[in-house]
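for ur thesis appendix - Flavin reductase like domain-containing protein. copy paste whatever u need, i formatted it the way the template wanted (i think)
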Amino acid sequence: MVMFSSVGYKDTVRNIEESKDFAISIVSHSQADAMNITSDALPHEDDEFVLAGVDSHPSTQISVPGVLGSPAILECRSVSINRLQDLQGCPIDTWVVFAQILAVSLDKNCIEEGLFRTELANPISRAGYADEYWETTASGKFLLSR
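the 3d part is after this line
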């Protein structure tokens, strides 16, 4: 299972309500500029793949594609979409999508000894503010025994 939130009712939430399907394409550092283009508030009819200059990766289990060249693509189907409420029970402009992962595509260059090595994918993640991101690299890896 995966979940994500959206501040504001954006195309992503509307598209998932309509089709139930979505792909999470993990973004490597080299794809950051294209990813940033797709986060713009665009008219519903605009094709983000075309605007960002990326090609689509056909999905095997869902009706929408992922991004070709992504180190990992999760094919997901929505289980529920919830609008959040404040402590008084009043709806707020934030939505949470819960989904089941139906299929996973992995870049074979990120697999060593049968394991997906996150540091080889060099993924980026949002760091809490609109313009701040982090990248995951081998130098940031550490082990904890359990």
